[in-house]
Amino acid sequence: AGATLQPQYNGSYPASTGTDAASFAKTKFDFVVVGGGTAGLVFAYRLSENPKVSVGVIEAGQYRPDDPLIGTPTAGNLLGNADIGTLLGNPTYDWMFQSVPQTALNGLVIDYPRGKVVGGSSAINSMIWQRASDVDYDNWNTVFQNGPGWSAQGLEPYFKRVESWTEPELLFPGQQRDPALANEHGTNGPISVSYDTFLTDIEVPSVAAANSIGIPTNSNPDGGNETFIALTARSVDPKTGLRSYAGNAYYQTAIGRPNLKLLSQAVVSKINFSKSGKSGIVATGVNYIVGGKTYTVNVEKEVILAAGSLKTPQILELSGVGNKTILSNLGIDVVLDFPQIGENLQDHPVTLLDFKVKDDVLTLDRLNYNQTYSFEQQVLYNTSASGAMSYTEAVVGPLPLQKTVDSSTFDAMFSNLTATLATQQQTPIQKVQYAALESMVKSGAVGWFELTVVPSGGVASTAANGSNYLTSVAIELHPFGRGYVHINSTDPTVQPVIDPKFLEIPWDAEVLVHGSQWVRKWMQSEPIAGLLEGEITPSLNVQSDEEWDAYVRTAVRTTNHPLGTTAMASRALGGVVDPNLKVYGLANVRVVDAGIIPMTIGVAIQSTIYAMAEKAADLVKSTYGI
Ligand SMILES: Cc1cc2nc3c(=O)[nH]c(=O)nc-3n(C[C@H](O)[C@H](O)[C@H](O)COP(=O)(O)OP(=O)(O)OC[C@H]3O[C@@H](n4cnc5c(N)ncnc54)[C@H](O)[C@@H]3O)c2cc1C
Hints:
Elements: H1 21-26, E1 29-34, H2 38-47, E2 55-58, H3 68-71, H4 74-78, E3 97-98, E4 111-112, E5 128-129, H5 134-142, H6 152-162, E6 163-165, H7 179-183, E7 191-193, H8 203-212, E8 230-231, E9 233-234, H9 246-254, E10 260-263, E11 267-274, E12 282-290, E13 293-305, H10 312-318, E14 321-322, H11 324-329, E15 336-337, E16 349-357, H12 365-369, H13 371-384, E17 395-399, H14 407-422, H15 428-443, E18 449-454, E19 468-476, E20 484-486, E21 497-499, H16 506-523, E22 532-537, H17 545-555, E23 557-558, E24 589-591, H18 606-624
Parallel strand pairs: 1-2, 1-13, 2-10, 6-7, 13-24, 14-15
Antiparallel strand pairs: 3-4, 5-9, 8-17, 11-12, 12-13, 16-19, 16-22, 16-23, 17-18, 18-19, 20-21
The structure holds flavin-adenine dinucleotide.
């Protein structure tokens, strides 16, 4: 039994997208973009708007237009446990990286899904579309010294440029129809941004329960203040019900341009450099592997690295740009000693709580065990792009820490934090980050931990057939932990070593402990409490702070927002790219992906990445007057 979606797309994919490995190598490109993912495709689309500019994109994954697993919102991601296939953990779509065993999590290994398909992670993500509070972007200007172009105000036109926004039909308890919300959004951009038109039985009572314990509804979370509970936007086209992502919204609409070529199923292994000219270290082209054979494509102007925060550092290191000790140990010739590359890895750690929901309460689990319902919903989706198959997570709530812990707990946590940080050796960038974080958390005006609720089970524990569940989630938005990603092999197909160092700073564990406790309290509040049979995971056996701490350390996962590994910051702070996204010390290499974000922001990161890539395209266009 299960939904009737076809498990795999059976159509024939173009073997390539109008090019092949050998002819791509012979083409003259002004820009070679490494990675046809979220940011890379935005950049390629914008640069190739000018027919005189030639752009070549190299992507490791396949081109899968019209794939229902990618397109159908509920299909590949939320219902990953159903018999309709899954995007995550499926090598056709996912690099399926894993972290090293986490020291503070008793050796737990964290799964790191990353999109490996045209569209990158935007093809496999959960489609939540959020904008952070102004302070998070203003920090890029002030704290990281990138200038006013990188601030909330400087980025605003780019957020709008990305979007075709449709206002919400449904409203949550406490939500007003705020005209200011429309002013925050664009109406002519490639990505369709909309809101759920279908809810299960648990979202509205969850929001009402949060309201009843002092968390108001935010009617305009995109207006510079992300905090409190809100109906979140999502990257779904309301007319077709399909995921709107870099693959279909950007690349597919530009596929006919003769000056844009995308080579799929090709893995970039290194950038080639020349040091002989007077311009310093100049990228001359890149090497890529197709079918075991290495090809070289030359570049006229620039190499744009857009392989994502976990792969761009690997490509730089394989090319001789990185920490000289790591490179020399692997026998790689050092082109540029750059120890900050791959450092400063940050992410949003998360813990989950599963609750059993009463039998007559609708959750998405019904799609899994009730064939009549799932057939009905499939027909509804196919005919009107609506219903359960069109669902994405709707409830988000970045809460200031002070809303979830009392002032004496906050003070105790804060003094422990200060004591921990005092014992640490900090890099220049950490020093300014920690000072900014301390002042942000003390202000009580920034989201520190985010709640969300998923109307299905099997997320934290295995769902029994025929039963209904909800999973509520506590996400830490501004952790102090800093990890790294580095190579330990010269083989470009071997995944780099990923160590997010989750919860090594005790404060980060305390935030998740108190966040999880708050989530339990939320679920024990009416009206959501009346719909629940009880807590399954971790169960009411877990009560004391120590028991919660032990649970959290077995249950941490990533929210899939790794960033910061090629941080945009001044050179004095140890930044890797400058405000034009150029790698310091290299004449013509830029990074345009999540790696440039210097510090975690208080929301999911995709809309920020799209906006950043739009801005990057403008910067490059103005550099060359194109
Ligand atoms: C499972 C999941 C759920 C998420 N949910 C959300 C959400 O709901 N909301 C939100 O805002 N964000 C979400 N995110 C985060 C967001 O989608 C990503 O942060 C964002 O898409 C990353 O964009 P990017 O351009 O940095 O990298 P990517 O989009 O990952 O692009 C990198 C591309 O480079 C390619 N590549 C890498 N190495 C090579 C190589 N050597 N040669 C050739 N090609 C290469 C990859 O295959 C990929 O296509 C989620 C992410 C994941 C993985």
